[in-house]
Amino acid sequence: MKKSTYVSIIIAIILLFGVFLYVASQFSLVEPVGRLTITKVGNPDMFPGHANAEVLSEYAAKKGSKCILVVHYGGDSNYRNFDEDEQILAPDGVSVLELAFVDPSTYKTYVDWGEVIQTFLFGIPEDRYDYKADGIYFNTLDEALNYIDRLAVDRGQEGPIPMFYHGTVREGDPYLNPGCGFPLYTQIAWKYYGRLGAYYYIAKGLIWPYISNKYYPYEISHLSDLQRLYNYNQLNYR
Known about the structure:
- The chain is about 45% helix and about 20% strand.
- The chain is an alpha/beta fold.
- It has one domain.
């Protein structure tokens, strides 16, 4: 087979995959964007006026979306939705919706590489986690996503909701640890876009903060200080 034929086949596969992702996005609740940030600059994770809530609202407004979803690893927060002002691009503001997975076995800040490999190969079992939004616990992902969908409909959302995962790492290297909310981002992407779609959105999403989050240069240049301040409860603003 000629080299040009191989190239044509590869291009055709890429185009078909692109069409698949586009069509899937038209029927999906969310459109995965990627990792929001690399470490905490303020605690709690999200609140009106938080630097990364600003980043979220700016992104949503540019996309013409009334809502945006950020997913987390469940800690002490209730993960309440709130409105963030974006006066220039969205005079009515943007609704930041939050959803967390709760690991019933333990709370981990480290990377369990065995679990990472299993997740990469087989996805996340439906009964692996519980979920929390607005202080409400859900037993299944479907129940949690139905709740998020109702919130978005109430706010006039049209089309898929842009979805980020929080991505913060409280200790260690953020390049090796994908950060807070990564398993839930993977699970939701896999649910709506299948295995290959999830792989694509994982790869694309991992680089998002390094090229698109305007606070990344500050975060990476002050990483150890910010991690230390957070772990000593000195980043608490609310």
